[in-house]
Request: fold
Amino acid sequence: MKTRHYLITVGVAYILFLLIYTPASAVISAFRDSVPQIKIEGVTGTIWNGRAQRITYSHHVLENTHWSTCSWRLITGEACVELEAKYNDNNFHSEIGVNVTGTVKARDLQANLDAEALGEQLRLPLGKLSGDVLLNIEQLVWAGGYVPTAEGVIKWNNAAITLAEQTDLGMVSIQITESDEYPLTATLNNNGGHIAINGHINIGDDGTYSLELKLLPGNSASVNLRKNLGTFTKKQSDGSYLVENNGNLNELGIM
Reply:
């Protein structure tokens, strides 16, 4: 019994030694070979506590990234780090781990984003966006499929879209969940603004999406705004405008 306890103690101590003293650059070199689509530059420190000047995936860039190991999760068979970084000059925070089956989990993902910069980067066909986007994702799970599952809320404060004129949308809320049929389902609504928004987006395993959005102009909506809505969607009997669209996330630069 004492021998077994001794061996376990030595094993744990050795793992901690590797985490604390192994240079992060050595691990990153192996990571680059296995995941070439992710570019990591300016690596310093160790696996336990380190930094990367720049992490790039597609056109998404994390800068001044700092990580520290969530060592207690090793007990559950998961390698985990807590990340803090800058994304488009805004704060980004998350705890990211991978288990023995290769499943990647992001917990407590929080970020503050500028809506205009986000819209340009994601190539969203919505005109110029403005306002502040707050991400609060409780958990995002990527089990090897094309699209992860997620639970959380996205708040778009002081939301506005400029087409022919600026349209105030108030505070837009997006509730993200997993459904039986889709790995990601987002429900949209807003409070205040020139237009009332209600709708949903369903995203399939292969990245295809279907959007159904009901836009109801309020009393403060201008005549020009109503005309602009009528140019790209059909007016319904209740005075609302129904937007329906299907496509793939690749077209929006998201995946």
